[in-house]
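Subject: Sanity check before I submit

Could someone independently write out the C-alpha coordinates for this chain? I want to compare against mine line by line before I put it in a report. The sequence has 435 residues.
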Amino acid sequence: MATYPLLLASASDQARAVATGNISAAALLQWQLEAIDHWQPALNTYIARAPAPTPGRGESPLAGSSFAVKDNFDVAGLPTASGLRALSHKASRDATVVARLRAAGLACLGKLNMHPVALGASNHNPDYGNCFNPVRAGLTPGGSSGGSGAAVAAGLCGLALGSDTMGSVRIPAAYCGVVGFKPSHETLGLDGVDTLCRWLDHVGLLARSVEDVIAALRIAAPHLQSAPRPVAARWRIGVVQDLPALGASEAVCIAFDAAIAQLQQVLPMDTLPLHLAASDLGASRRAGLLLCEAELHHRLAPLLRERPEVLPADLLAMMRYIERKSALDLGQAVAQVARTGERLDILVQGLDAVLLPTAPQVAFAMDASAPANQADFTAMANMNGAPAISLPLPVPAGALPVGLQVVGHRGHDLALLQLSAVLENALTPNPPRSP
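---
Independent answer below. Compare away.
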Protein backbone atom coordinates (compact mmCIF):
# COMPACT_ATOMS: atom_id res chain seq x y z
CA MET A 1 0.00 0.00 0.00
CA ALA A 2 2.93 2.33 0.51
CA THR A 3 4.15 4.54 -2.32
CA TYR A 4 7.80 3.53 -1.88
CA PRO A 5 8.96 -0.08 -1.25
CA LEU A 6 11.28 1.00 1.57
CA LEU A 7 8.24 2.10 3.59
CA LEU A 8 7.14 -1.54 3.84
CA ALA A 9 10.61 -2.73 4.83
CA SER A 10 11.32 -3.36 8.48
CA ALA A 11 12.35 -0.42 10.64
CA SER A 12 15.73 -2.11 10.99
CA ASP A 13 16.14 -2.20 7.20
CA GLN A 14 15.09 1.44 7.00
CA ALA A 15 17.71 2.35 9.60
CA ARG A 16 20.36 0.36 7.71
CA ALA A 17 19.46 2.17 4.50
CA VAL A 18 19.97 5.48 6.30
CA ALA A 19 23.21 4.34 7.97
CA THR A 20 24.73 3.18 4.67
CA GLY A 21 23.78 6.36 2.84
CA ASN A 22 21.26 4.75 0.49
CA ILE A 23 18.75 7.34 1.66
CA SER A 24 18.82 10.25 4.07
CA ALA A 25 16.70 10.21 7.22
CA ALA A 26 15.04 13.41 5.95
CA ALA A 27 14.05 11.80 2.64
CA LEU A 28 12.70 8.70 4.38
CA LEU A 29 10.68 10.87 6.74
CA GLN A 30 9.29 12.85 3.80
CA TRP A 31 8.20 9.64 2.07
CA GLN A 32 6.39 8.55 5.24
CA LEU A 33 4.62 11.87 5.61
CA GLU A 34 3.50 11.74 1.97
CA ALA A 35 2.21 8.19 2.45
CA ILE A 36 0.25 9.24 5.52
CA ASP A 37 -1.34 12.11 3.59
CA HIS A 38 -2.23 9.76 0.74
CA TRP A 39 -3.77 6.96 2.83
CA GLN A 40 -5.32 8.88 5.71
CA PRO A 41 -8.71 9.38 3.96
CA ALA A 42 -9.07 5.63 3.30
CA LEU A 43 -7.56 4.20 6.50
CA ASN A 44 -7.94 6.98 9.12
CA THR A 45 -4.99 5.68 11.12
CA TYR A 46 -3.84 8.98 12.66
CA ILE A 47 -5.83 10.99 15.22
CA ALA A 48 -3.18 13.70 15.68
CA ARG A 49 -0.06 14.42 13.65
CA ALA A 50 3.21 15.77 14.99
CA PRO A 51 3.25 19.35 13.63
CA ALA A 52 6.85 19.34 12.40
CA PRO A 53 8.52 15.97 12.91
CA THR A 54 12.28 16.01 12.44
CA PRO A 55 14.51 13.12 11.37
CA GLY A 56 15.92 11.23 14.31
CA ARG A 57 19.61 11.10 15.08
CA GLY A 58 21.40 8.45 17.07
CA GLU A 59 23.47 5.29 17.09
CA SER A 60 20.75 2.73 17.79
CA PRO A 61 19.85 -0.03 15.29
CA LEU A 62 16.61 1.85 14.58
CA ALA A 63 17.99 5.38 14.23
CA GLY A 64 16.62 7.09 11.15
CA SER A 65 13.32 5.21 11.16
CA SER A 66 10.15 6.40 12.87
CA PHE A 67 7.34 5.43 15.22
CA ALA A 68 3.81 6.47 16.10
CA VAL A 69 1.83 5.85 19.26
CA LYS A 70 -1.64 4.80 20.27
CA ASP A 71 -3.70 7.75 21.44
CA ASN A 72 -3.54 6.72 25.12
CA PHE A 73 0.24 7.44 25.24
CA ASP A 74 1.42 10.93 26.14
CA VAL A 75 3.46 12.80 23.51
CA ALA A 76 4.56 16.24 24.64
CA GLY A 77 2.57 18.98 22.94
CA LEU A 78 -0.05 16.65 21.44
CA PRO A 79 -3.48 15.86 22.87
CA THR A 80 -4.03 12.57 24.67
CA ALA A 81 -7.67 11.49 24.39
CA SER A 82 -7.63 7.68 24.55
CA GLY A 83 -9.88 7.79 21.50
CA LEU A 84 -12.59 9.73 23.35
CA ARG A 85 -12.79 13.47 22.68
CA ALA A 86 -14.28 14.25 26.11
CA LEU A 87 -11.05 13.05 27.74
CA SER A 88 -8.71 15.04 25.50
CA HIS A 89 -5.94 16.99 27.20
CA LYS A 90 -2.58 18.27 25.99
CA ALA A 91 0.36 16.27 27.29
CA SER A 92 3.18 18.23 28.89
CA ARG A 93 5.76 15.44 28.63
CA ASP A 94 6.45 12.22 26.76
CA ALA A 95 5.56 8.84 28.19
CA THR A 96 8.80 7.14 29.26
CA VAL A 97 8.76 4.65 26.40
CA VAL A 98 8.14 7.48 23.90
CA ALA A 99 11.05 9.49 25.29
CA ARG A 100 13.39 6.50 25.03
CA LEU A 101 12.51 5.82 21.40
CA ARG A 102 13.00 9.48 20.52
CA ALA A 103 16.39 9.53 22.26
CA ALA A 104 17.42 6.48 20.23
CA GLY A 105 16.99 8.39 16.97
CA LEU A 106 13.43 7.55 15.88
CA ALA A 107 11.13 10.32 14.67
CA CYS A 108 7.72 10.45 16.36
CA LEU A 109 5.02 10.95 13.71
CA GLY A 110 1.92 11.32 15.88
CA LYS A 111 -1.00 9.67 17.65
CA LEU A 112 -2.87 6.67 16.27
CA ASN A 113 -6.56 5.80 16.20
CA MET A 114 -7.93 3.37 18.76
CA HIS A 115 -11.14 1.93 20.11
CA PRO A 116 -12.42 4.48 22.65
CA VAL A 117 -10.72 4.11 26.06
CA ALA A 118 -9.16 0.84 24.82
CA LEU A 119 -12.34 -1.11 25.64
CA GLY A 120 -13.17 -2.89 22.39
CA ALA A 121 -11.61 -4.87 19.56
CA SER A 122 -13.04 -3.37 16.35
CA ASN A 123 -11.75 0.25 16.34
CA HIS A 124 -15.19 1.71 15.79
CA ASN A 125 -14.70 5.30 16.91
CA PRO A 126 -17.64 7.75 16.88
CA ASP A 127 -15.45 10.75 17.81
CA TYR A 128 -12.50 10.35 15.44
CA GLY A 129 -13.93 8.05 12.80
CA ASN A 130 -13.42 4.34 12.24
CA CYS A 131 -9.96 3.04 11.41
CA PHE A 132 -9.77 0.46 8.61
CA ASN A 133 -7.57 -2.51 7.80
CA PRO A 134 -5.13 -1.84 4.92
CA VAL A 135 -5.22 -5.51 3.89
CA ARG A 136 -8.74 -5.26 2.51
CA ALA A 137 -11.16 -2.35 2.26
CA GLY A 138 -14.02 -2.25 4.74
CA LEU A 139 -12.49 -4.58 7.33
CA THR A 140 -11.65 -3.83 10.92
CA PRO A 141 -7.96 -3.72 11.86
CA GLY A 142 -8.86 -5.14 15.25
CA GLY A 143 -8.50 -3.31 18.50
CA SER A 144 -8.10 -1.66 20.66
CA SER A 145 -4.72 -0.73 19.08
CA GLY A 146 -6.27 -0.78 15.60
CA GLY A 147 -4.54 2.35 14.36
CA SER A 148 -1.18 0.93 15.43
CA GLY A 149 -1.71 -2.31 13.52
CA ALA A 150 -3.04 -0.56 10.42
CA ALA A 151 -0.28 2.06 10.33
CA VAL A 152 2.49 -0.53 10.58
CA ALA A 153 0.88 -2.77 7.95
CA ALA A 154 0.48 0.15 5.55
CA GLY A 155 4.03 1.43 6.02
CA LEU A 156 2.87 4.68 7.64
CA CYS A 157 5.50 4.44 10.41
CA GLY A 158 8.51 2.26 11.13
CA LEU A 159 6.92 0.73 14.22
CA ALA A 160 4.14 1.59 16.65
CA LEU A 161 3.32 1.54 20.33
CA GLY A 162 0.09 0.07 21.64
CA SER A 163 -1.44 -1.04 24.90
CA ASP A 164 -2.60 -4.60 25.47
CA THR A 165 -5.17 -5.41 28.17
CA MET A 166 -6.46 -8.77 26.91
CA GLY A 167 -4.99 -8.86 23.40
CA SER A 168 -5.21 -5.29 22.14
CA VAL A 169 -1.74 -5.37 20.53
CA ARG A 170 -1.72 -8.98 19.34
CA ILE A 171 -5.21 -9.03 17.80
CA PRO A 172 -4.57 -6.03 15.48
CA ALA A 173 -1.20 -7.58 14.59
CA ALA A 174 -2.95 -10.82 13.61
CA TYR A 175 -5.69 -9.10 11.61
CA CYS A 176 -3.26 -6.79 9.79
CA GLY A 177 -0.50 -9.34 9.15
CA VAL A 178 2.26 -7.78 11.26
CA VAL A 179 4.19 -8.63 14.43
CA GLY A 180 2.70 -7.64 17.79
CA PHE A 181 4.53 -8.17 21.09
CA LYS A 182 3.22 -7.91 24.65
CA PRO A 183 6.17 -8.13 27.05
CA SER A 184 6.05 -9.34 30.63
CA HIS A 185 4.01 -7.14 32.91
CA GLU A 186 7.02 -5.59 34.61
CA THR A 187 9.17 -5.05 31.51
CA LEU A 188 7.76 -1.72 30.31
CA GLY A 189 6.10 0.57 32.82
CA LEU A 190 2.83 2.38 32.27
CA ASP A 191 4.26 5.84 32.97
CA GLY A 192 2.55 8.35 30.72
CA VAL A 193 -0.10 5.89 29.53
CA ASP A 194 -3.83 6.24 30.20
CA THR A 195 -4.70 2.80 31.52
CA LEU A 196 -7.83 0.69 31.25
CA CYS A 197 -7.05 -1.91 33.92
CA ARG A 198 -3.67 -1.63 35.61
CA TRP A 199 -3.64 -5.29 36.61
CA LEU A 200 -4.00 -6.43 33.00
CA ASP A 201 -2.52 -3.54 30.98
CA HIS A 202 0.83 -3.88 29.21
CA VAL A 203 2.69 -1.53 26.87
CA GLY A 204 3.33 -3.38 23.60
CA LEU A 205 5.12 -3.03 20.27
CA LEU A 206 3.90 -3.54 16.70
CA ALA A 207 6.39 -3.91 13.88
CA ARG A 208 7.10 -5.62 10.57
CA SER A 209 9.73 -8.01 11.96
CA VAL A 210 10.83 -9.65 15.19
CA GLU A 211 14.22 -7.97 14.69
CA ASP A 212 12.47 -4.61 15.02
CA VAL A 213 10.71 -5.71 18.21
CA ILE A 214 13.97 -6.88 19.79
CA ALA A 215 15.72 -3.63 18.90
CA ALA A 216 12.85 -1.49 20.17
CA LEU A 217 12.53 -3.49 23.38
CA ARG A 218 16.23 -3.09 24.13
CA ILE A 219 15.77 0.66 23.71
CA ALA A 220 12.57 0.88 25.76
CA ALA A 221 13.77 -1.52 28.48
CA PRO A 222 17.55 -1.04 28.67
CA HIS A 223 17.70 -3.02 31.92
CA LEU A 224 16.90 -6.30 30.16
CA GLN A 225 19.72 -8.81 30.07
CA SER A 226 19.97 -11.43 27.34
CA ALA A 227 20.69 -15.07 28.11
CA PRO A 228 21.28 -16.62 24.67
CA ARG A 229 20.12 -20.19 24.26
CA PRO A 230 22.63 -22.67 22.77
CA VAL A 231 21.98 -23.00 19.04
CA ALA A 232 22.09 -26.78 19.18
CA ALA A 233 19.42 -27.08 21.87
CA ARG A 234 16.05 -28.57 21.00
CA TRP A 235 13.02 -26.49 21.71
CA ARG A 236 10.22 -27.98 23.82
CA ILE A 237 7.01 -26.49 22.45
CA GLY A 238 3.46 -27.00 23.63
CA VAL A 239 0.94 -26.94 20.79
CA VAL A 240 -2.76 -26.39 21.47
CA GLN A 241 -4.76 -29.13 19.74
CA ASP A 242 -8.48 -28.61 20.36
CA LEU A 243 -8.93 -25.48 18.28
CA PRO A 244 -12.38 -26.23 16.77
CA ALA A 245 -13.74 -26.88 20.26
CA LEU A 246 -12.31 -23.51 21.30
CA GLY A 247 -14.19 -21.72 18.52
CA ALA A 248 -11.39 -21.31 15.97
CA SER A 249 -12.56 -20.85 12.39
CA GLU A 250 -11.64 -23.25 9.59
CA ALA A 251 -9.29 -20.70 7.98
CA VAL A 252 -7.43 -20.23 11.26
CA CYS A 253 -7.17 -23.97 11.92
CA ILE A 254 -5.85 -24.69 8.42
CA ALA A 255 -3.17 -21.98 8.61
CA PHE A 256 -2.12 -22.98 12.12
CA ASP A 257 -1.92 -26.73 11.42
CA ALA A 258 0.08 -26.14 8.23
CA ALA A 259 2.52 -23.91 10.08
CA ILE A 260 3.05 -26.44 12.86
CA ALA A 261 3.75 -29.16 10.29
CA GLN A 262 6.23 -26.88 8.55
CA LEU A 263 8.00 -26.00 11.80
CA GLN A 264 8.26 -29.64 12.82
CA GLN A 265 10.02 -30.41 9.55
CA VAL A 266 12.67 -27.69 9.70
CA LEU A 267 13.36 -26.94 13.38
CA PRO A 268 14.94 -28.95 16.21
CA MET A 269 11.81 -29.00 18.33
CA ASP A 270 9.78 -31.48 20.33
CA THR A 271 6.07 -30.72 20.35
CA LEU A 272 3.75 -31.66 23.18
CA PRO A 273 -0.03 -31.64 22.67
CA LEU A 274 -2.03 -29.32 24.91
CA HIS A 275 -5.79 -29.05 25.37
CA LEU A 276 -7.62 -25.97 26.63
CA ALA A 277 -11.30 -26.72 26.07
CA ALA A 278 -11.81 -27.62 29.73
CA SER A 279 -10.31 -24.29 30.84
CA ASP A 280 -13.37 -22.22 29.81
CA LEU A 281 -11.41 -19.40 28.22
CA GLY A 282 -14.64 -17.50 27.62
CA ALA A 283 -15.35 -17.32 31.36
CA SER A 284 -11.87 -15.92 31.99
CA ARG A 285 -12.28 -13.35 29.24
CA ARG A 286 -15.63 -12.25 30.67
CA ALA A 287 -14.09 -11.97 34.15
CA GLY A 288 -11.30 -9.80 32.78
CA LEU A 289 -13.83 -7.60 31.00
CA LEU A 290 -15.71 -7.10 34.27
CA LEU A 291 -12.53 -5.87 35.96
CA CYS A 292 -11.87 -3.49 33.07
CA GLU A 293 -15.39 -2.09 33.29
CA ALA A 294 -15.13 -1.64 37.06
CA GLU A 295 -11.83 0.23 36.95
CA LEU A 296 -12.89 2.35 33.98
CA HIS A 297 -16.17 3.33 35.66
CA HIS A 298 -14.24 5.16 38.37
CA ARG A 299 -12.32 7.14 35.74
CA LEU A 300 -15.46 8.01 33.76
CA ALA A 301 -17.63 8.78 36.81
CA PRO A 302 -17.73 12.57 36.22
CA LEU A 303 -18.83 12.09 32.61
CA LEU A 304 -21.40 9.46 33.62
CA ARG A 305 -22.90 11.91 36.11
CA GLU A 306 -22.76 15.10 34.09
CA ARG A 307 -22.43 14.31 30.36
CA PRO A 308 -23.32 10.68 29.61
CA GLU A 309 -24.32 11.69 26.06
CA VAL A 310 -20.64 12.17 25.10
CA LEU A 311 -19.93 8.46 25.59
CA PRO A 312 -20.34 5.99 22.71
CA ALA A 313 -23.48 3.88 23.09
CA ASP A 314 -21.58 0.62 23.59
CA LEU A 315 -19.31 2.16 26.23
CA LEU A 316 -22.25 3.71 28.07
CA ALA A 317 -24.01 0.34 28.07
CA MET A 318 -20.96 -1.31 29.61
CA MET A 319 -20.77 1.35 32.31
CA ARG A 320 -24.44 0.90 33.17
CA TYR A 321 -23.90 -2.86 33.23
CA ILE A 322 -21.10 -2.69 35.80
CA GLU A 323 -23.23 -0.45 38.00
CA ARG A 324 -25.58 -3.40 38.48
CA LYS A 325 -22.82 -5.74 39.62
CA SER A 326 -22.05 -6.49 43.26
CA ALA A 327 -18.84 -6.73 45.25
CA LEU A 328 -19.38 -10.49 45.19
CA ASP A 329 -19.44 -10.44 41.39
CA LEU A 330 -16.16 -8.53 41.32
CA GLY A 331 -14.59 -10.87 43.86
CA GLN A 332 -15.51 -13.85 41.74
CA ALA A 333 -14.03 -12.15 38.67
CA VAL A 334 -10.77 -11.46 40.50
CA ALA A 335 -10.58 -15.12 41.56
CA GLN A 336 -11.29 -16.31 38.00
CA VAL A 337 -8.56 -14.10 36.55
CA ALA A 338 -6.06 -15.26 39.18
CA ARG A 339 -6.87 -18.93 38.53
CA THR A 340 -6.37 -18.44 34.80
CA GLY A 341 -2.96 -16.91 35.39
CA GLU A 342 -2.02 -19.84 37.59
CA ARG A 343 -3.20 -22.32 34.94
CA LEU A 344 -0.92 -20.70 32.37
CA ASP A 345 1.98 -21.08 34.82
CA ILE A 346 1.25 -24.78 34.97
CA LEU A 347 0.74 -25.02 31.21
CA VAL A 348 4.21 -23.68 30.37
CA GLN A 349 6.11 -25.67 32.99
CA GLY A 350 8.89 -27.63 31.33
CA LEU A 351 8.27 -25.90 27.99
CA ASP A 352 10.05 -23.13 26.14
CA ALA A 353 6.76 -21.76 24.83
CA VAL A 354 3.15 -22.52 23.97
CA LEU A 355 1.84 -22.08 20.41
CA LEU A 356 -1.77 -21.33 19.52
CA PRO A 357 -3.53 -18.97 17.11
CA THR A 358 -3.64 -15.34 18.14
CA ALA A 359 -7.37 -14.96 17.48
CA PRO A 360 -10.05 -17.55 16.70
CA GLN A 361 -11.01 -15.72 13.50
CA VAL A 362 -9.64 -13.42 10.80
CA ALA A 363 -10.54 -9.76 10.35
CA PHE A 364 -14.25 -9.10 9.84
CA ALA A 365 -16.27 -6.33 8.23
CA MET A 366 -16.38 -3.06 10.16
CA ASP A 367 -20.17 -3.04 10.00
CA ALA A 368 -20.47 -6.64 11.27
CA SER A 369 -20.97 -7.61 14.90
CA ALA A 370 -17.66 -8.21 16.66
CA PRO A 371 -17.16 -11.87 17.64
CA ALA A 372 -17.45 -12.22 21.40
CA ASN A 373 -14.54 -14.65 21.60
CA GLN A 374 -11.89 -12.47 19.91
CA ALA A 375 -9.73 -12.26 23.04
CA ASP A 376 -10.22 -15.84 24.29
CA PHE A 377 -6.75 -16.91 23.11
CA THR A 378 -4.88 -13.77 24.14
CA ALA A 379 -6.31 -12.86 27.56
CA MET A 380 -4.47 -15.63 29.43
CA ALA A 381 -1.07 -14.00 29.01
CA ASN A 382 -2.36 -10.72 30.48
CA MET A 383 -3.74 -12.57 33.48
CA ASN A 384 -0.38 -14.25 33.95
CA GLY A 385 1.83 -11.30 33.02
CA ALA A 386 3.78 -13.52 30.62
CA PRO A 387 5.33 -12.31 27.35
CA ALA A 388 3.37 -13.19 24.21
CA ILE A 389 3.83 -12.34 20.56
CA SER A 390 1.75 -12.63 17.38
CA LEU A 391 3.58 -13.59 14.18
CA PRO A 392 2.03 -13.60 10.69
CA LEU A 393 1.38 -17.12 9.37
CA PRO A 394 1.75 -18.12 5.72
CA VAL A 395 -1.65 -17.97 4.00
CA PRO A 396 -2.69 -18.40 0.35
CA ALA A 397 -2.51 -15.38 -1.93
CA GLY A 398 -5.56 -13.20 -1.37
CA ALA A 399 -6.44 -14.80 1.97
CA LEU A 400 -6.77 -12.70 5.10
CA PRO A 401 -3.91 -12.74 7.62
CA VAL A 402 -3.80 -15.26 10.47
CA GLY A 403 -1.64 -14.82 13.56
CA LEU A 404 0.50 -17.38 15.38
CA GLN A 405 0.70 -16.61 19.10
CA VAL A 406 3.81 -17.64 21.02
CA VAL A 407 3.51 -17.45 24.82
CA GLY A 408 6.54 -17.73 27.10
CA HIS A 409 7.56 -17.46 30.75
CA ARG A 410 7.08 -14.27 32.72
CA GLY A 411 10.33 -12.34 32.98
CA HIS A 412 11.94 -14.13 30.02
CA ASP A 413 11.04 -11.72 27.24
CA LEU A 414 14.29 -11.94 25.28
CA ALA A 415 14.25 -15.73 25.35
CA LEU A 416 10.77 -15.68 23.86
CA LEU A 417 11.84 -13.18 21.21
CA GLN A 418 14.87 -15.30 20.35
CA LEU A 419 12.57 -18.27 19.73
CA SER A 420 10.13 -16.02 17.82
CA ALA A 421 12.89 -14.92 15.46
CA VAL A 422 13.66 -18.58 14.74
CA LEU A 423 9.99 -19.30 14.10
CA GLU A 424 9.62 -16.23 11.88
CA ASN A 425 12.60 -17.27 9.78
CA ALA A 426 11.33 -20.85 9.48
CA LEU A 427 7.89 -19.68 8.36
CA THR A 428 9.21 -17.05 5.91
CA PRO A 429 12.67 -18.25 4.81
CA ASN A 430 14.87 -15.73 3.04
CA PRO A 431 12.43 -12.82 3.35
CA PRO A 432 13.11 -10.18 0.69
CA ARG A 433 14.84 -7.02 1.84
CA SER A 434 14.16 -3.64 0.36
CA PRO A 435 17.22 -1.56 -0.59
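---
OP: Matches mine. For the report I'm noting this point. Residues 218 and 224 are 7 Å apart (CA to CA).
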